[in-house]
Design goal:
Helix content is 40%, strand content 3%. The chain is an all-alpha fold. The chain has two domains: 1-41, no CATH class; 72-132, no CATH class. The chain has a two-stranded antiparallel sheet with strand order 1-2. One of its GO terms (biological process) is box C/D snoRNP assembly. This is Zinc finger HIT domain-containing protein 3.
Length: 143
């Protein structure tokens, strides 16, 4: 989806969105003009929908094995990897991850996703960062 037209002046492409109602606007002048009249945050049913059609499933975070919790430095290594960030630019991978995360049976969806080569390659990259320093941190996280 490309740039949208400014909904205030209808003259330029929008670069910004109102933090309250998400109306696209192009400049500070248009933002101030928009704010002259009150705006409200859209209700969830009016909010822009994503490509993933599943509803968000509230699920508690339960970790039986503290060794399955990543350390901060591992998360930072993953987040700072340009290779992983580049892989996450793939829309189909984004949708697949969202599908897993939104599922009421995430374990089953994860198993299905592992059958797809692109997802397997992505998880292999992530695991390289997790396992690369496996001996430099404790196996169990202390509370």
């Amino acid at each position: 989806m490309g740039p949208r037209q400014c909904q205030v002046c209808d003259q330029a492409q929008s670069k910004y969105k109102c933090p309250s109602c998400y109306l696209p606007y192009c400049s500070l002048v248009c933002f101030k003009k928009h704010k002259e009249s009150p705006c409200v945050k859209p209700q969830p049913s009016e909010a822009k929908t994503t490509a993933v059609s599943e509803s968000i499933v509230e699920k508690p975070l339960v970790v039986n094995e503290t060794s399955h919790v990543l350390q901060k430095f591992q998360l930072e290594a993953i987040a700072s990897s340009s290779e992983i960030r580049d892989a996450l630019n793939d829309k189909s991978l984004q949708e697949l991850i969202c599908h897993i995360d939104c599922s009421s049976n995430a374990d089953n969806e994860l198993d299905k996703a592992m059958a797809e080569e692109a997802f397997r390659l992505f998880t292999d990259k992530v695991m390289l960062y997790v396992d690369s320093d496996v001996h430099s941190f404790p196996l169990h996280v202390k509370p």
